[in-house]
Amino acid sequence: MQPSALDADTRAGTAYRFNRFGTALLIDDMTFSRDAPGPGAPMPAFDLATVDGGRFRDTDLGTRPVLMVFGSRTCPVTESAGPVLRRLHAQFGDRVRFVLVNTREAHPGDVFGQPDTFAVKHRHAVQLRDHHAIDFEVAVDDIDGRLHRAMSPKPNSAYLIDPSGVIRYRAHWANDESALHTALTEMAAGRVPARGRSRAMAGPLLRAVGHLPGIVRYAGRRVERDVWLAAPPLAVLGRLSRLFNRLPADRRGPAAVVLLGVAVASVLGVLLATQ
């Protein structure tokens, strides 16, 4: 690598390990870059350690299709995806290799922050595995997230890869259970998924909203302040979701949307009545 290219990679790695979540990051999370690897593209080269002492390599994927999912302990969508991945692994784990790749923290806080060494990132990966009671492989991207960056980094994207290393399916969010189930069914049967992508957005994000208060409690109050500054509507929904603690976390976000809609409609009704 030429010195200029090396400097650019170093800067990109430093920028990747952000300490404060902001609006620009939120916007980046919503779309893949034009050159992001997608269905039909080969996986970039990688060689990652797994928390159990093994390796996850592009040159040794094994004989089964691979479901590779990115995630972190401070990602609300990863929180929502944990039970989804356990259910899918229980059904397809004998025919598909499951690997969760620990990335940078999606919402680093003042208590649980962004790792600044590989050793710390490895500990975060262990905590991620233990928190979600995951019994399949958990790998750790390097400290600068080279694999994650090569894929156009998203907090909780998922990829189905055939044994030759070709991507056959990409999901923007790994909590999109129905779409992932369909794609896994086809791959497990030896077929390329008829639909190569899942672009679902509103449903996955609303399911994640109810997990945001838990992330704040775990990572620190700074997380909530950052979300208020970066995405006030999400912060409002996160606050409202606390009113529905008796519901499963995935249902609190949709309930908060309904409550907010009723409140706005009521205010508008009062204003119109006074005209």
UniProtKB/TrEMBL annotation:
Residues 37-189 form the Thioredoxin domain. The chain crosses the membrane at residues 255-274. The keyword Cytoplasm does not apply. Keywords: Membrane, Transmembrane, Transmembrane helix. It comes from the Bacteria. This is Thioredoxin domain-containing protein. It comes from Luedemannella flava.
